[in-house]
Amino acid sequence: MNVLLWIIQILLGVAFVVSGAGKFFPPGERAREQQAYREDFTPAQLRGIGALEVLGGLGVVLPWATGIATFLTPLAAAGLGLIMIGAAVVHRRRKEGIAVNLVLLAMAVIVVAGRF
């Protein structure tokens, strides 16, 4: 079970660090078309969401890996789950697919349950 939790934590961490970092930079034309949700947010809001995703991505891995403040790992996973609920609401309102959001939410729930 511990190995499975580590795999999920690392996948979540990578996914959110990459996704969050992508929100800091203005997208190219092709990315703008694929990320139409950006129209719903100001640049400052996108940077804030990106910062939360990067911090959550790091928080889901680093505390447990270092053994320092390990209670932060399930809290970070819970925060990422809340971000995914919000993302699913935004994508659903735009009539876009939410499958990826639900998978990431399920992974976050597994980490919360496994590490608390």
Automatic annotation (TrEMBL):
Under the cellular component aspect of Gene Ontology, which terms does the record hold? membrane
- Is Nucleotide-binding set as a keyword in this record? no
**Swiss-Prot/TrEMBL keywords:** Membrane, Transmembrane, Transmembrane helix
Where does this chain mainly localize?
Answer: membrane
Transmembrane ranges, per UniProt, are: 6-25, 46-65, 71-90, 97-114
User: Carries keyword Transmembrane helix?
Assistant: yes
Protein's recorded name: LPXTG-motif cell wall anchor domain-containing protein/MYXO-CTERM domain-containing protein
What's the source species' lineage?
Answer: Bacteria, Bacillati, Actinomycetota, Actinomycetes, Streptosporangiales
